[in-house]
Automatic annotation (TrEMBL):
Membrane-crossing residue ranges in chain numbering: 12-29, 35-55, 76-95, 165-186, 192-215, 246-266, 278-301, 313-332, 352-371
Pfam family, one: Acyl_transf_3
A GO term, aspect molecular function: acyltransferase activity, transferring groups other than amino-acyl groups
Protein source organism: Thiolapillus brandeum
Name of this protein: Acyltransferase family protein
Length: 627
């Protein structure tokens, strides 16, 4: 069968399905918790279309690398350049210096198609809130554009394979290798698996395989009808049932990717294909690239300005604005630059002069913003931490506790020996105790933010890590310990599970065990709260609007009630009420700014050095025996 490159409206219909899934997910509609799989559907579509176009040009004797990349540049860069320029311009007006500096960095990475590496590098424990990253969605463009660099050469090599069985074996090998990498690294390096191309290759191969299946064994009749229905059902099930608790991509990505492949294979179906060929869905598919580029900065900046979760009306309005804005950018930016557009026929357009000119302007603007640390002179210094200050606050957490000989952990030679066990909030505790004058000799045992109750996985994906850490911690040197301090973020309360963990620790040592309850945390980064309010005198009162008061109090009261039982008292297991020490019995005075105008937190839940010292002094007044 001869390869055809006729326009297929069903493919644009599938694009429409993918971008709507992403939109529904990002605006926060509860019935689309797995809408992120729309990106995977896009990867399958891209694998199909790019492979088909390359093979068609090879068959027609028209393929050259220059021709291929010029078409990709015309297709992708105009809308991307405009998105980057507008997003950076709005950020200069709106963002704090540290956030703007990070935006400038991500602009440069996106400009050179490597933003997936940038956001992978940011994906540690203190990863900034996604809603301060208006270019976060460009990670997928980075993956796709890196795929374009390698795939034409691979396809040229595949054309040398004449036997369908051998060709299928090679495609299966590529797919299998990528999946094997997923399985091998998804537990230990989930961020790398999500952001980097080698772990996504199998999704593009799914689409590429559809080209050869279409050539050698096209579906028709009832099979094509069944393929479309089944494929759409698989995608819809993933959108409705997946969420961030599942390991992804990995094996779980097979469902939406296989669904997309089935839809492509059966998309010409007479009856079931009508949905995909519906004018509205096809129209959304045509503008899907511009909609995708526009929607996330729009959502980020709206939420940044309002500091609130969106209600149904706001979500619907933003959805319509994203679609309308996407159409405008498609009509007046994408289309004029495409290969058949009027603009492309001018000398300026043919020579692609606009590419280096646009890149130069963006490089200068983003580079200057980065070099000037986000232009801190735009705002009063006392309302912001610089990026250097924030980086220093983050880095001190792990650098000074991973080394047992660190000055932070070392106490006086004749001081008591205490094990502190927990996640980064336990490090907050160490700084609080040190700031209030404690000279205890500490050992720190890390339980990770991915585990609660000091060893129980928060999700299935965390099970291996939590089990490993728990085993390591239980084999630590518990002999001769004078006390055990347990502190956690208390992301949830599970009394029976905590009871089990406490008895396991009790079996390791006879020393008294002190369970430190939660401190106050906030829905928003305290620096963003300060930026929104811009008045130092009433900042603490304003900040309480964003405090997790109800949640923290419920967990605090549950812990107090559990540990007040004689069962625990007889076993020398005690509760330390950090929340009341920090905020008072009514928990209405949880300051984010100290009396001398210093930030008590450097994000939404971790103390600054100043905040840790002040909290430690308050704890010392109520519990002097801990010092």
């Amino acid at each position: 069968m001869r390869l055809q490159r006729a326009y297929r409206p069903d493919i644009d219909g599938l694009r429409g399905v993918a971008v709507l899934a992403i939109l529904f997910y990002h605006i926060g509609w509860d019935w689309a918790p797995g809408g992120f799989v729309g990106v995977d559907v896009f990867f399958v579509i891209s694998g199909f279309l790019i492979t088909r176009n390359i093979l068609y040009d090879i068959g027609a004797g028209k393929f050259t690398f220059k021709r291929f990349y010029v078409k990709r540049i015309r297709r992708l860069f105009p809308a991307l350049f405009l998105t980057l320029a507008v997003t950076l311009s709005v950020g200069i007006w709106l963002f704090s210096p540290a956030e703007l500096e990070r935006l400038a960095q991500s602009t440069l990475y996106a400009l050179f198609s490597v933003s997936n590496f940038f956001f992978w590098g940011e994906s540690g424990y203190f990863n900034p809130d996604a809603f301060t990253k208006p270019l976060l969605h460009t990670w997928s463009l980075g993956v796709e554009e890196q795929y374009y660099l390698i795939w034409p050469s691979i396809v040229l090599g595949l054309t040398l394979i004449r036997k369908p069985v051998a060709l299928a074996s090679v495609l299966l090998a590529l797919c299998g290798l990528s999946l094997a990498l997923n399985i091998g690294f998804i537990d230990t390096e989930p961020e790398a698996v999500f952001f980097l191309l080698p772990f996504r290759v199998f999704e593009f191969v799914f689409g590429a395989a559809c080209v050869w299946i279409t050539i050698n064994a096209p579906l028709g009749g009832k099979l094509s009808e069944l393929a479309v229905i089944t494929g759409l059902a698989m995608i819809a099930w993933a959108v409705a049932n997946y969420d961030h608790s599942i390991p992804f991509p990995g094996i779980n990505a097979l469902l939406p990717c296989a669904g997309a492949a089935l839809v492509i294979l059966g998309g010409k179906a007479v009856y079931s294909g009508r949905l995909l060929r519906a004018r509205l869905l096809v129209g959304i598919g045509l503008i899907s690239y511009s909609v995708y580029l526009l929607h996330w900065p729009l959502i980020v900046y709206y939420r940044y300005l309002t500091m609130q979760e969106m209600n149904g009306l706001q979500q619907s309005i933003l959805l319509l604005i994203a679609l309308l804005g996407g159409w405008l950018m498609w009509r007046f930016v994408e289309q004029p630059f495409r290969s058949k557009g009027a603009f492309s026929k001018t000398a300026w357009g043919q020579k692609l002069v606009w590419v280096p000119l646009s890149m130069s302007v963006l490089i200068v603007a983003a580079g200057a913003t980065w070099a000037n640390k986000g232009f801190p002179g735009r705002y009063p210094n006392e309302l912001f931490m610089s990026s250097k200050q924030i980086a220093a606050e983050r880095s001190r957490y792990w650098k000074q506790v991973t080394n047992k000989d660190s000055r932070l952990l070392q106490g006086d030679p004749d001081a008591k020996h205490v094990i502190v066990m927990g996640n980064s909030h336990a490090i907050d505790l160490v700084y609080a105790l040190r700031g209030a004058g404690s000279r205890i000799d500490f050992d720190f045992l890390n339980t990770s933010h991915r585990c609660f109750n000091f060893g129980t996985p928060r999700t299935e994906q965390d099970a291996a890590l939590c089990s490993q850490l728990l085993e390591q911690n239980y084999h630590a040197a518990w002999d001769g310990v004078d006390a055990v301090y347990l502190h956690d973020s208390w992301s949830r309360f599970d009394g029976p599970d905590l009871r089990k963990r406490l008895l396991e620790i009790r079996a390791l040592t006879d020393a008294p065990i002190y369970v430190f309850g939660p401190k106050m945390t906030f829905r928003k980064d305290v620096l963003a709260i300060a930026r929104a309010h811009m008045r130092l005198q009433t900042l603490n009162e304003y900040g309480m609007r964003f405090a997790f008061r109800k949640n923290r109090k419920q967990i605090n009261d549950s812990l107090r009630h559990l540990l007040a039982d004689d069962f625990f008292r007889k076993r020398n297991i005690f509760f330390v009420d950090v929340l009341s020490a920090q905020c008072g019995e009514s928990i209405e005075a949880c300051d984010i700014l100290s009396d001398d105008g210093k930030f008590m937190y450097f994000d939404a839940e971790h103390f600054s050095r100043e905040g840790a010292m002040i909290a430690g002094l308050k704890i010392r007044r109520l519990y002097p025996e801990l010092f």
